[in-house]
Amino acid sequence: MYGGGYIFDEPNKKQLREEEQHDEPEKLAAFEERIAKGEKIEPGDWMPAEYRRQLIRLIEQHAHSEIIGALPEGTWITRAPGFKRKLALIAKVQDEIGHGQLLYNAAETLGKSREAMINDLLSGKSKYSNVFNYPAETWADVAVIGFLIDAAAIVNQVANAKGSYGPYCRALERICYEESFHLKQGHDAFIELATGTPAQRDMLQDALNRWWQPIMHFFGPPDKVSSHSEKLMQWKVKMASNDDMRNQFLDAYVPKVWELGLTLPDPALRKNEATGRWEYTDPDWDEFFRVINGGGPCNAERLQVRKWAEEHGRWVRKALMRPAERKTFPAA
Amino acid sequence: MSNESLDPRVNRLKLGEAGEIVKVEEGENWNIYEVFHQEKRGAHHEHVGCVHAPDPQLALVFAKEQFGRRKKCVNLWVVKSADILAFDVEDEDMFANNLEKTYRDASGFKVMEKINKFKQSK
């Protein structure tokens, strides 16, 4: 799943630093020319410090989102309705953890160790996609997550797979391939409820109503308030603006919800045929920032579960340790 | 935190027991191995990514889980990342070809022209 479209700022809100962009003008020019030509940047290549910093931030948050994103769904494995749904959910959750590892490795090629990333997650310094700070209350929530949130993540990941950093693109290529099954099984579970009994439809409608705002939050704040996108887009770190990705998502998936006779809790939601853009009520962005900063219903539980896992897995890692091994970084 | 999770298993874990601060030591996630997979017998092994593992045997086990569980795969190699020797990317220009290299390309040898010319002269 689960690269949120939005790269969260670090707590100190460091902006792109002008001096770093100009420290080695010749190398910077050659670097930007390579990116403009569509070439990929590889780990050993020269890159501006700010490019490295922003990529680590992006890929690391993406990795954390995969790992934390497995928790709300993992909760439902024991209660999945039927053997096939249970098998599919186990497979999906395993894939998400695998994606986390692929992404941690891609970030490690930039020089930040996996341990450092995990520590930053546990301490709350680095963020993950905001949608996972909400609970999956019923099985219909799992269907909505598997269908619509995976769909939103795919919009983002397909865009990012065309970015400039080789290891991230290669990881995303594999991830996107695996996501196609996630989306399909989510859609299938969604359709099953939508075409089922009145009670099943009610349960699905209730889940949609609760998840709509987090889904609208998924791609991040509107372009008019989102800062420092221009350089990141020139460097092909960010491949599309938040609003463009949100529009692409609405265009593809709102009709798929409406065609089932379900509703979305926004009376203003409609496509403006003249502009081709979707119009909607702005979701509550204060709520978005409140939840990012720890105020959501599940922030504490998610991190506590991660801490529990690290703490209780430590003896296994230690028992297998070969002290003579020298720690290295991935080659590509 | 209070035990108010919707997940009964989470409620059974005594969360918070580990304390607020949990720190993973540098190197605790072991070492990094590069993974090469073979899609079918007779094909090359291709680099697909990395795994963290304490030794090569476990690296193979993790690689099978990570890279062999979805797409077709018949074999895997692992090698410690540190053992990969590669040229410096700055030296990329050493691979630049001479413009004139037809002497080592199959297309640089036009035998048919000579054969046809010979046949026509008969």
From TrEMBL, chain A:
<dbReference type="InterPro" id="IPR011881">
    <property type="entry name" value="PaaA"/>
</dbReference>
<dbReference type="GO" id="GO:0010124">
    <property type="term" value="P:phenylacetate catabolic process"/>
</dbReference>
<dbReference type="InterPro" id="IPR009078">
    <property type="entry name" value="Ferritin-like_SF"/>
</dbReference>
<keyword id="KW-0560">Oxidoreductase</keyword>
<dbReference type="InterPro" id="IPR007814">
    <property type="entry name" value="PaaA_PaaC"/>
</dbReference>
<feature type="compositionally biased region" description="Basic and acidic residues">
    <location>
        <begin position="10"/>
        <end position="26"/>
    </location>
</feature>
<dbReference type="InterPro" id="IPR052703">
    <property type="entry name" value="Aromatic_CoA_ox/epox"/>
</dbReference>
<dbReference type="Pfam" id="PF05138">
    <property type="entry name" value="PaaA_PaaC"/>
</dbReference>
<dbReference type="GO" id="GO:0005829">
    <property type="term" value="C:cytosol"/>
</dbReference>
<protein>
    <submittedName>
        <fullName>1,2-phenylacetyl-CoA epoxidase subunit A</fullName>
        <ecNumber>1.14.13.149</ecNumber>
    </submittedName>
</protein>
<dbReference type="GO" id="GO:0097266">
    <property type="term" value="F:phenylacetyl-CoA 1,2-epoxidase activity"/>
</dbReference>
<dbReference type="InterPro" id="IPR012347">
    <property type="entry name" value="Ferritin-like"/>
</dbReference>
<feature type="region of interest" description="Disordered">
    <location>
        <begin position="1"/>
        <end position="26"/>
    </location>
</feature>
TrEMBL record, chain B:
<dbReference type="GO" id="GO:0097266">
    <property type="term" value="F:phenylacetyl-CoA 1,2-epoxidase activity"/>
</dbReference>
<keyword id="KW-0560">Oxidoreductase</keyword>
<dbReference type="InterPro" id="IPR009359">
    <property type="entry name" value="PaaB"/>
</dbReference>
<dbReference type="Pfam" id="PF06243">
    <property type="entry name" value="PaaB"/>
</dbReference>
<protein>
    <submittedName>
        <fullName>1,2-phenylacetyl-CoA epoxidase subunit B</fullName>
        <ecNumber>1.14.13.149</ecNumber>
    </submittedName>
</protein>
<dbReference type="InterPro" id="IPR038693">
    <property type="entry name" value="PaaB_sf"/>
</dbReference>
